[in-house]
Design brief:
Blueprint (H helix, E strand, L loop, with lengths): L3 E2 H8 L2 E3 L4 E2 L2 E2 L9 E3 L12 H6 L4 E4 L10 E3 L3 H15 L3 E6 L4 H12 L5 E3 L9 H6 L8 E5 L7 H9 L3 E4 L7 H4 L2 H17 L3 E5 L5 H7 L1 H5 L3 E5 L6 E8 L4 E7 L2 E7 L4 H17 L3 H9 L9 E4 L3 E5 L6 H12 L4 E7 L8 H12 L5 E5 L3 H8 L3 E4 L2 H12 L5 E6 L7 H13 L1
Parallel strand pairs: 4-5, 5-6, 6-7, 8-10, 8-11, 9-10, 11-12, 12-13, 13-14, 18-22, 19-20, 19-22, 20-21
Antiparallel strand pairs: 1-3, 2-7, 14-15, 15-16, 17-18
Length: 456
C-alpha cells in the first residue's frame, strides 16, 4: 500500500479528526486483524463494526474511522457521514499517488474470467495487482486499490453492479485509464428494472472513463452496440470507443473459433498482428472473453507478444465450466452462479459433449418481473442441447415445462443428488452440467458427484 495521512483522508471525506494527524500505512475492516492499521467501522444490514471499535484498538489499530458516536478513544478518531464511502476514499488516496496503468471492467457475465485473463497477460509485462476472486463491490474495489504499491505497474479492477449507480459509485475511486464492458445481458434485472436499465448501469463505466479522456471498449456483437455508438458518438469519432468481436473493423477481431470437449481454439487479429491459440476453456463465449482481455491489455500498454503467452497460462476456475472426468461419468462444474445468458452459453457447451447429456439447473436469481419468462426461455433453449433437464427450485418449473419430454423437477436437493448419483453409476456414461444461482447451493450437487467419482 502507498501511505497517506489522516489529514488527506479527512479532506476527501469532509470529516472531523479528533486527535493528532498520522501516516496511514494499512487499512482494515476487521477488528480482529488490524494491528498498525486504520480501522474502518463499516455498517451493514446484519452487523455494525462500531460495536467492536474498542476491540480494534486493543488489537493494535493506530486510528479509527466511524460514522456514529463511540465515546473517547486512546487513538486518533476520524468521524464521517458514511464509513463505506470513506473506505472508498482510502482507495482513492492510494490511487491518486499510484503511477500504475489502471484498467477496469464490468459486464453481466464473464467478468471474472476476463479479469483473470487480462491480469495473466499484464503480469508478463510488469508488476500487476488485480481483484481477488469476484470481490467487485463497494468494499472489494477499495480494498483492491489499497493493494497498489509504488512499484505496481498495472491494476485490473473488476466492478460489479446490481442496480443503477453502483458502478458510478466505485468509478469515483477507480479513476480507470481504460474501461471495458464485456456484455450487457439479462442479469440483475430485478435491481436494474429492465434490460435497458442493465445497459444504462453498465454504461456508467464508459461515462466515467470518457469524462477523464480515457478509452472505452465494448463488444461489437452486442445488441447494444449501436446504442453505444450513438450515446458516446464523440468518443467513437475520436477513436476512444474501441471494439472487440467478430467484425472486420474491430480493434481485436476473433476468427476461426473451434470448440471441443477439451477446450477452444481460435485466431485473433490484434494490433495489426494475427496469432492462433488453444485454451482449456469451454464454449465460444470464452473465446470472446479472451478477445476482450486482449483488447483491454493492449490498451493498457501490453506488448502483442505477451497476448498469446498470457492467454495460454490461464486455467479454469472452480465453478466456472470446470471439467472433471471420472470412470463412468463426466462432471462440468458451472455452479458458481447463473445469469440467463450464462445458462444459454452453458447449454451450448453441453450440446457438444459426448455421453448422456444432463443439464442440472437451479433457479436463476434477481430477474424480477422477467423471471418466469426467462426461465421458460432457458428450458426451451436447452431442448435439443441436453438429453435431460433436471431442475431444482420453484422458478425452474417453467424451464421443465418448456423443455418437455426428458425434464424432471425435484422437490429437494437431496432427491436430485440421489438421482444424479444413481445415473452416474449406470452404463449410460452421463455428462452432467451443473448450474444455478449462488443462493441455490448447486455446489453441493457437485461435491456429491465428485465424492462418488473419486471412489471409482
Amino acid at each position: 500500500m502507498i501511505d497517506f495521512s489522516l489529514g488527506e483522508l479527512k479532506e476527501l471525506c469532509k470529516g472531523t479528526l479528533v486527535g493528532k494527524d498520522l501516516t496511514v500505512k494499512a487499512v482494515s475492516t476487521d477488528s480482529r486483524n488490524c494491528r498498525g492499521a486504520l480501522f474502518v467501522a463499516l455498517r451493514g444490514e446484519r452487523f455494525d463494526a462500531h460495536d467492536f471499535v474498542n476491540n480494534a484498538v486493543s488489537n493494535g489499530a493506530v486510528a479509527v474511522a466511524v460514522s456514529r458516536d463511540v465515546g473517547s478513544l486512546s487513538v486518533p478518531l476520524l468521524r464521517c457521514q458514511d464509513t463505506l464511502r470513506l473506505l472508498g476514499f482510502c482507495g482513492l488516496c492510494v490511487r491518486k499517488k499510484s503511477r500504475a496503468k489502471v484498467v477496469s471492467l464490468t459486464g453481466s457475465c464473464g467478468k471474472t474470467t476476463v479479469k483473470e485473463l487480462t491480469a495473466g497477460i499484464l503480469r508478463l509485462c510488469g508488476n500487476t495487482v488485480s481483484t481477488r476472486g469476484n470481490f467487485n463491490n463497494d468494499v472489494g474495489v477499495p480494498l483492491t486499490l489499497l493493494e497498489l504499491s509504488k512499484d505496481t505497474q498495472y491494476a485490473v479492477i473488476e466492478q460489479g453492479a446490481s442496480h443503477l449507480h453502483d458502478i458510478s459509485r466505485t468509478c469515483e475511486f477507480v479513476c480507470a485509464d481504460v474501461a471495458l464492458i464485456n456484455n450487457a445481458g439479462s442479469a440483475h434485472i430485478e435491481g436494474f428494472g429492465s434490460k435497458k436499465g442493465v445497459y444504462l448501469g453498465k454504461s456508467e463505466i464508459l461515462q466515467d472513463v470518457f469524462s477523464r479522456g480515457g478509452v472505452g471498449i465494448v463488444p461489437s456483437d452486442s445488441e447494444w452496440f449501436e446504442c453505444w455508438k450513438s450515446d458516446f458518438s464523440e468518443a467513437y469519432s475520436q477513436g476512444r470507443l474501441l471494439t472487440f468481436g467478430t467484425h472486420k473493423d474491430d480493434f481485436v477481431r476473433l476468427v476461426k473459433v473451434k470448440t471441443s470437449e477439451e477446450g477452444i481454439s481460435f485466431s485473433l487479429n490484434a494490433a495489426g498482428e494475427c496469432f492462433e491459440t488453444a485454451l482449456p476453456l469451454l464454449g465460444v463465449h470464452n473465446a470472446m472473453n479472451a478477445a476482450a482481455a486482449c483488447a483491454l491489455s493492449l490498451c493498457a500498454g501490453a506488448k502483442s507478444a505477451c497476448l498469446k503467452q498470457g492467454l495460454e497460462k490461464y486455467r479454469p476456475m472452480q465453478g466456472r465450466l470446470c471439467v472433471r472426468r471420472f470412470g463412468s461419468f463426466t462432471l462440468i462444474d458451472d455452479a458458481y452462479n447463473a445469469s440467463f445468458n450464462a445458462v444459454l452459453a452453458a447449454a451450448d457447451v453441453l450440446s457438444g459433449c459426448h455421453g448422456h447429456r444432463v443439464m442440472i439447473l437451479g433457479d436463476m436469481g434477481e430477474l424480477g418481473s422477467e423471471a418466469s419468462h426467462l426461465h421458460s426461455k432457458a428450458g426451451e433453449y436447452a431442448k435439443g442441447r441436453a438429453d435431460e433437464l433436471w431442475c431444482l427450485g420453484e422458478l425452474t418449473k417453467q424451464s421443465c415445462a418448456a423443455f418437455g419430454k426428458g425434464a424432471k423437477h425435484f422437490e429437494s436437493q437431496e432427491a436430485l443428488i440421489k438421482a444424479a448419483c444413481e445415473l452416474a453409476k449406470s452404463e449410460l456414461h452421463a455428462c452432467f452440467l451443473v448450474k444455478g444461482s449462488h443462493a441455490m447451493h448447486m455446489d453441493l450437487v457437485n461435491q456429491a458427484l465428485v465424492k462418488l467419482g473419486e471412489k471409482q
